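U., I forgot to send this yesterday:
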Amino acid sequence: MRPLFVLGDLRIAPDNNRKIVLTPFSSGLLAWYFVAVWGAGYVATKIGLQYAPPFTFLSLRFAFGLLCLLPVVLVWRPRWPKDRRELGHLAVAGLLMHAVQLGGSHYAQYLGMSAGVAALIIACQPLFTAVIVSGWMNERLATRQWAGVVIGLAGVALVVWHKIDIREVTLGSLAGTLVALAGVTAAVLYQRAFSPRADLKAAAVVQFAVSLVVLAPLAVLVEDFAVRNTRELWTAIAFLVIFASILGVSVLNFLMRHGEAARVSSMMYLPPVFAVVLEAAMFGVVPSGLALAGIAVTCAGVAMTVWSRRWKSSISSS
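Result:
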């Protein structure tokens, strides 16, 4: 799967035997579903963290995810890793993607960072991936894409500096998002290099399981596995597992298999915008004018980096 984004780099080869033909309306509707559910995921996380601290919340999420995946893998048999080496690569990618990335971003929100700012910083992953693949993987970036990297990072710096200045972002929450950003960038590059064609269902099971094994003991030792058992908590977990992790990834998989990679990659700067709007509607967290300007600049930079019809690479589309 290309592009390299938050979901990892499971490369999905086009399926030329499929008879399904997507109309512009249907493909657009599916792409917007993915953008909306991914942006809403940050707000759902904010809700869930009111009732369980991060490691505990993630442990419940991955346990529930495994329960949901059980009937899926029993009905639609996945292609499991054929040896320990392949299994190990999936496990490492899963720990980077889920334990490190989600652990960092969840703790950032738990320490007070808004869902919109967390989404904005992590949405810069394509910018960092662009720099890495250009510097160490011999992939050329167009001038416009280099400009996008600079503009995107300048926008993030503007938002973060402003939030620190007015004490809406602490150094702890900023560190959490930077850990998350490093985790997701490392995860997509690692999976691209070592398990690019893993079965999506098998990868989900393996990665949820290893993340649960690592995070559950931390939840007990660090957080005493403190849970306020509420309807809001389980609604947030159900939304994140069913609508984001399972249906959202399935929609992305479907679009990639039917030649819509360009459409999806060109919209990947929108989830932070959706998160900001939803957070304002639900929690009354309205960004200042300076923060809105920084968000707009960042989104423009990410769009310039990932949206290029001429440049065929792991950051745009194939």
